[in-house]
Write a structure and sequence with these properties.
Rossmann fold; 6-stranded mixed beta sheet; 4-stranded antiparallel beta sheet; 10 strands; ABC_transporter-like_ATP-bd
Amino acid sequence: MNSLLMIEHLSKTFTLYNLDQQIEAAADVSLHVNEGEFIGITGKSGSGKSTVLRCIYRTYLPQKGTIRYQSAAYGEIDLASAPDRVMIDLRKREIGYVSQFLNVMPRTTARELVTQALLEMGTDPHQAARETERMLDHFELDSKLRDSYPATFSGGEKLRLNIARAMVKRPRLLLLDEPTASLDHASKVKVKTLIEQLMQEGTTMLGIFHDLEFMEGLCSRQYHMQDGRFHEGGRPEAAGRFLRDQKV
């Protein structure tokens, strides 16, 4: 299999100026991800899981290490040092990110958010409109809400919209940071169905989950993060015992 993402010796430190302290969130992290794999990541809160994903997406800039990504548009590129304009383009066309939180421009409706994601990729407006409705139907977002502003939505509705906006693009690389945190069981099943569909279509994914039952049967490999480092895990039960020991 071909490697899509190669993280080598990634380190990220945050400075707490008011306390004159430095916090090492990621310490010498290395990980190779093959095309089409789904890598599952567990670990207690504050262990550095989200930091790694945000470095890949370049929300955070690491102090050390490389993040080599095999881009369809640019060939091999180091996401840790790529120009900002390249990262913006990759986020539009190749790399998706789903977090627990929905940060959007005010006065943009739910329907517009999903449609804009497709238009950024050059999708025909009529096709974009059809795909938008199909995705919002899948996540059962009430038709009365689709022309409303997400600021008025519940936490679960915002999260379903956030997932819809990222997944409708069919990205080459999808980063999932607790995507089912505030969803009910039925909504989790819908997320899992789309993940399975994207996997069949070749999307490569890295996902952070506390819901270990959700991960079961999806992941190619599992890691838990402790002290800023990845430790390869085995079965979901083993990761579960680790989390219980950490009293998450």
